[in-house]
Amino acid sequence: MRTSLSFSILIWAYSKRAKNNHASLYARITINGKRVNISLKEKVDLNLWNPKLQKVKGNSENSRSVNHFIAQVKADIMQCYRDLSNGARVVTPQLVKARYLGEDKETHSLRDLFLYHNETNGHKLCSRTLSHYRTSQKYILKYIAQAYKSSDVFLRDLDYEFLLGLESFLRNYGTAHHNGSIGNNTTMKHIQRLRKMINLARHMEWIERNPFRKFKQTIIKRQREFLTDLELKKIEDLKFSIERITVVKDLFLFSCYTGISYLDIMKLNRSFVKQGIDGNQWIMDTRNKTGTPFKNPKKGITL
Asked: 234 and 285 in one domain?
């Protein structure tokens, strides 16, 4: 569902850089509080300029010519905005400017890619995976806002420098979910998702150059420890006066003995316990992340 946008066009004279009392004209495009300026390559006499009406005073041939030019500029920019609004793009001032200047032919932005990816892959990815992509997209847009002072960038402008800057930004970005900065592997995961979206753009021929060509991702492998039988027995024998802690202990032990992940345990109920072909009670379900069916021959499990 497309939300309504606040759109306006302002024609103004850059009086601070006036020479011989003549100043250059600019068009300012504003969408939802975000704005961009376009140099119109036209000068006006400040003595004749009416900033309130955004036009030149008088009825001389030159005044009529300049005012006609201004009216045409406004009409052309408005048409560019309407054309973009009717498409699938997220309309930004930068996109309207590029369309007006004729620089956006077959050009897509990073926001275009995010929108297309989420819409076309929403039914293919599980909700949790799609949520991870949205989080990565949010961080990338925060980086663009900080580093480029913009709400969007064209895919054609992505390069090795952009990726190095993004990596540095992520490593130093603190969130409520992390103690301090984001870790190496999480940073690489965000960049990995961007790589997958860029590959999608390359398949659709939205981008010619691969910005990841020289970029190296480094994942630090973690050696996971496991509990011994003796350690598991000690946990089993632990007694707690708080029922909530006892439930947490039982869930942990259940996961250890069955191999079922926490996410899958949280969705279990009695309907998942079914009789197998051997006559025993089995837990039968599909894993949340990989979609791989799992079966566990623990008998008499109470859910």
From this structure: yes
